[in-house]
Design goal:
Helix content: 40-55%
Distance between the termini: 40 Å
Largest sheet: 4 strands, parallel
Number of domains: 2
Order of helices and strands: EHEHHEHEHHHEHEEEHHHHEHEHHEHEH
Strand content: 5-15%
């Protein structure tokens, strides 16, 4: 049964959860009211507004129970891999072994938001020489020091080269603190020269075959390390099975994005969509549960679309959003301002594009890794954004600049310039700190001004009598 969509406070969501249980809703045993996480320090949950569907509740529970799940995996005998920086490729390799579980310590960049900076992770990073001139992922350093937010992995793997300078510096600091890292090289993705063979990567970009060969060789070293850690070979068939599961996640997300971004009214809020998209890079330490959660999300959205129910006015301003936000509360804020998301580029489009299933597995993984939009020319990423802006009929583009991030210093302006030239839509850049309360009024004013500008520039429709 499709319930009318409604945004709920955390208290209302917990009451709703109890009501759903009384109705006979069957959830896995570990699922429970989301409010229980506030006592663990996740106080930002009190400031958010949540979708009322059982599917969204399962999504949130999957996200917020990852630490518990990692401890359970370790207790069951699995080895833990901390995959850093590549955002979407190394975990596929790890999950191809039935003895390994991968997660992203990078995700610690959200801890200061969810826990409203009350855990002191940024202060710890400051004391270790990684100050606020670095992006919020520096919270990862504090999380490793305290050991309070995820178990220390049995193996740390990190890409280096054409990667975020901030992240490389933070990872090097970890290495120097006695946490050895298996580094693997990610070359800068460039165009093929006149005498070089080019191959097509997921997403449509081209790269010299020599670069794909290099990445395949580097990932081969990662594969060998995984086999040693697991105490068992990872065959090509194992990798093919892992790729098939990862592609199931990606296809579910593509279907979810297509319906949510194009249907009127919008059938799922921006906050839940942000969380759903993030599952593509790490599967929240459980790829099978991720598939089940996304299947439930897609079924809920399909039901709402069929019933023509959703959120926001039918004429809500359609905005394409670039980059994830440090403070999840902003996803609520944009909808309060009259904006609906009609598309996103959250820096990891290569984790949503299907992995080629008709290639040798290591070749396919190398191609998808090299398709990372952050390791190639920013103009290529901007061109893909511009094409999607046109395809999705976006009326504006908002670029969320990540505080202190070395890779974000000028990319917002590059993207804005290319989109403006090709699409003739307004673009704005905003910067969102880990907790945006101090700038919320300013953000609200800027977003409302964008909405008013777009509405005033829309053509006036005259009804013929």
């Amino acid at each position: 049964m499709i319930r009318l969509p409604e945004r709920l406070t955390l208290d209302q969501l917990d009451l709703h959860y109890a009501h759903l249980r009384r109705e006979g809703l069957l959830l896995p045993g570990q699922y429970g009211p989301i409010g229980r996480h506030v006592s663990d320090g996740d106080t930002r949950l009190l400031r958010l507004r949540y979708d009322n569907s059982p599917a969204a509740l399962r999504l949130w529970d999957l996200l917020l129970t990852e630490e518990q799940r990692l401890a359970q995996w370790r207790a069951s005998g699995k080895r833990l891999v901390g995959a850093m920086k590549d955002l979407g490729t190394v975990p596929v390799m790890a999950y191809s072994s039935d003895r390994l579980v991968a997660f992203y310590p990078d995700g610690a960049w959200w801890i200061p938001c969810v826990m409203e900076v009350n855990q002191g992770l940024l202060s710890i990073a400051d004391s270790l020489g990684i100050d606020e001139s670095f992006c919020p992922v520096r919270a990862m350093l504090g999380a490793f020091v305290t050991g309070a937010h995820f178990p220390i992995p049995d193996l740390l793997v990190c890409s280096v080269g054409a990667a975020c300078d901030d992240f490389a510096a933070i990872a090097q600091r970890l290495n120097g603190m006695g946490l050895p890292i298996l580094w693997w090289e990610m070359p800068y993705r460039r165009q093929a020269g006149p005498s070089e063979q080019a191959v097509q990567l997921p997403g449509g970009v081209l790269a010299p075959k020599v670069l794909v060969d290099l990445v395949r060789s580097e990932l081969g070293r990662v594969r060998s390390a995984f086999e040693e850690l697991a105490g068992k070979p990872i065959s090509d068939q194992d990798l093919a099975n892992g790729i098939n599961k990862a592609n199931r996640v990606r296809l579910l997300l593509q279907g979810l994005r297509r319906l949510v971004f194009t249907s009127v009214p919008t059938p799922m809020p921006a906050l839940e969509m942000l969380i759903a998209e993030m599952l593509a890079i790490h599967f929240c330490s459980d790829i099978d549960q991720t598939i089940l959660v996304l299947e439930a999300m897609l079924a809920e959205v399909e039901g709402r679309v069929a019933a023509k129910v959703g959120y926001g006015p039918l004429d809500a301003v359609r905005v394409f959003w670039v980059n994830p936000v440090a403070d999840l509360r902003v996803m609520n804020l944009i909808e309060e301002c009259g904006i609906r998301l009609c598309g996103t580029d959250l820096m990891f489009t290569h984790a949503i594009d299907p992995i080629p299933a008709d290639l040798q597995p290591m070749e396919a993984l190398a191609r998808v890794a090299l398709a990372d939009p952050m390791v190639g020319p920013m103009s290529e990423r901007a061109a893909r954004i511009a094409a999607q802006v046109q395809q999705l009929a976006a009326e504006a583009v908002v670029v969320s600049r990540i505080p202190g991030a070395s890779h974000c210093g000028y990319e917002g302006q590059v993207i804005a310039d290319i989109v403006a030239r090709r699409c003739y839509v307004p673009t704005i850049e905003i910067e969102v700190p880990p907790v945006a309360d101090s700038v919320e009024a300013t953000l609200r004013t800027r977003l409302q001004a964008l909405v008013e500008t777009i509405r005033s520039n829309r053509p006036i429709c005259h009804t013929q009598v």
